[in-house]
Amino acid sequence: MNNKSSYLILLICTILLSACSNIKYLPKGELLYVGATVKITDKNTNTKQQKVLAQELEGQVRPKPNTKILGLRPKLWFYNIAGTPKKNKGLRYWVKTKLGEPPVLFSQVSIERNIDILNNRMDNRGYFRSTVQADSTVKNRKIRVLYDDTTGPQ
Hints:
The chain is of the alpha+beta class and 154 residues long. 41% of the residues lie in helices and 18% in strands.
């Protein structure tokens, strides 16, 4: 009985936490930027070197998305729940500024600038004539950008 009740409590908590969506607080026509992925295409390097290079390049992409903890964005939730404080003081203001963080919208992302940064980083690593292409995928008003980097010999 105890084991079944713990599973039931876990299921209820999961359902309640999944209902706390931050998408409903976004302005009309805006998309929430959830991050970028870099894919390296190169026949001359092994997969381990490609993974290390991809992680380094993902660290260079700006802006950084909202922080995630266990698949949720609690700082964004605190920011949205606080609403608009009347003055620059009080509990609502403290929750919004100290516990929360504003949403990173796709309109703040400059794909062309990120492509230039990634090309520059590849030049610094000795991969001249590398080409970076960007593609984005939208799902439930969330957008993720995929940067495909085709490198030449180092």
